[in-house]
User: What shape does this take?
Amino acid sequence: MKEQLEKILSTAKQELSECHDLKIMEDLRVKFLGKKGELTAILKQMGGLSAEERPVIGQLANKVRSEIEEKLAEKAEALKSEAAAKKMAEETIDVTLPGKAPRPGRLHPLTATLEEVKEIFLGMGFDIVDGPEVETDHYCFEALNMPKHHPARDTQDTFYINENVVLRTQTSSVQIRTMEQRKPPIRIISPGRVYRSDAVDATHSPLFHQIEGLVIDKGVTLGDLYGTLDLLMKKLYGKDAKIRLRPHHFPYTEPSAEVDLVCFNCGGKGCSMCKGEGYVELLGSGMVHPEVLRGCGIDPEVYSGFAFGIGLERITMGRYHINDMRLLYENDMRFLGQF
Ligand code: DAH
Assistant: This one.
């Protein structure tokens, strides 16, 4: 029995010394000291010993137990500090490494320009309204005085869902929808996407953005159109910005005008920046055609109004001196990070 006890002690020491895991250590405790453990099994046999042997073996058994307990405690301590050291090593921070600079988000130039335009018009008492991008031929063309086969449709070829449903080519469709729904006085802008079946190049894209404007009231004149757009451009391009109205034709306005920005660089004389033109074409506008008003149930003898359609890309490119429209859609951070 003495040998058995010594054997238990030496295997316990051996196995504990090889143990590197708290869970395994607990298993060892049960194996040696538990109720069904090896030491208990020996103690159960003590009854068969002689009176002289019993205290000797008893003492030895107690010594073995306390030694194993001591080893277990030592091991537990060692494993704990080992784990703590490992954790410390894993969590070491090299403060000499270069930091990761956070990259703050920012508005896309188109969004930033649109937000500004909205603010300017809200300041002048305009509402912002929305309209569908998938539009009927009626709202996109017919009601704007562009019946089927009208030549003005040629420049606005688009994507047809079917003969009567198209992806809208212009936000002007929202003029009609608004006039049908609201009674004058009307003062709205309507920004949104428009589509044309154009090939992509530096100044064309099959998808771009417009901001439509519409004002209907009693006594609205071309002077109001001029004043509104002049203020818009001064706010967008600075107080020295000058515009001019150039006669043009749109089927839904009479008279119609294109609005040009006088070249900042040469003041209208013509230079390399404006490609010798002296002016940069900005948008289309005009006094809403009496036929269009009548079609929406508004009496042109009582009311008049003006409308305009701004190309968001165009005014954005002008503001930021961007020379290729494609840059606005490519989501290249090297480009977008500059604004
Ligand atoms: N819809 C025209 C275009 O896409 C722009 C335009 C011209 C809008 C005259 C208007 C307007 O409201 O009155 O080219």
